[in-house]
Amino acid sequence: xxxxxxxxxxxxxxxxxxxxxxxxxxxxxxxxxxxxxxxxxxxxxxxxxxxxxxxxxxxxxxxxxxxxxxxxxxxxxxxxxxxxxxxxxxxxxxxxxxxxxxxxxxxxxxxxxxxxxxxxxxxxxxxxxxxxxxxxxxxxxxxxxxxxxxxxxxxxxxxxxxxxxxxxxxxxxxxxxxxxxxxxxxxxxxxxxxxxxxxxxxxxxxxxxxxxxxxxxxxxxxxxxxxxxxxxxxxxxxxxxxxxxxxxxxxxxxxxxxxxxxxxxxxxxxxxxxxxxxxxxxxxxxxxxxxxxxxxxxxxxxxxxxxxxxxxxxxxxxxxxxxxxxxxxx
Length: 330
Prior knowledge:
Mean pLDDT: 96
């Protein structure tokens, strides 16, 4: 038996969003049902390099399949300008739970983008208005592309408004999608008055206020992934039905981490975890629901679920490069 090496192009091709969305939704359900093991994400802070490392191991059992793996990932904001490297680099080790054999080593950067978009799509499916046809994006970086691709899998998106202070980024985004959507640049408020809004920025001072968002807009808060990051104003969070992916992670490093520590938001202000909505333990959007917010920090079970999709599909297509990382004596 050999280990399958899959690069970013392989992951991008075989992490088919419809299948990844389904796998991530099953992972959220398994998390709620208690059939996962997911130690807290661990951080190695490197202020001397303006970056950090994160390790994310997990196991999940959906009842139909189980899977295990660990992702080693970073956030180094200076990489693009100083080293011509992406801000986020990741490596995923996907293993057989029964034998611990490393089935695959794959690019975790593309995997992270796909599973993050998939998580937003799952939340959008449960929390956005039916027939939502407009999507706003605050931030035109790489994740904004995946947000549009994934969310358009679960809602009939026609109109897209993207807001970013970098005009070149906005132009590139518009050019990438102008053949498929009615897409244009706009203000944060114009983006926020769409049916769905995804925020994908690294800011530490809120840039989206209550007045910037429509009365029934669903917001995917994606950018906050470390302590102190904060995209949405407190008054917006207070006005919204807030759904999180994991209490420990979100209160430590998600969108709600700053107001939660300050006592502005408490557990009473959190509607529930996304897994509760998936299994039906708590309601998603109802006729009386106004603004909704999904605080997405990214769970290791999402990576493992997405890695399984990539591995199985790559095997079916004889993709990747096989190598003997383990000496099996054969």
